[in-house]
Amino acid sequence: MPTYEYMCQKCGVFEEFQRMSDEPLSHCPKCGSPVKRLISRNVGIIFKGSGFYVTDNRSDDYKKRADSERKDTSSANSLDATGS
Q1: How many alpha carbons fall within 13 Å on the CB side of residue 24?
Q2: 66 by DSSP, 3-state: which?
């Protein structure tokens, strides 16, 4: 459910969880004074795809190069560990 911000003349700013289909509040639930709905600073961001990182959607060529570099590094590390 979305969170809406309202400004009450007496109580100040408060948040209210409401359905999108609900009518905006016209009076404060605490004191009954008139309220105005504020423009929200919250942004509904939708991430699509398998992940949220830039590297999740790299090209196939980049992935192949990264795999080959990883294999080269791991084989060099294994040679260092054996003392050869």
Answers
A1: 11
A2: helix
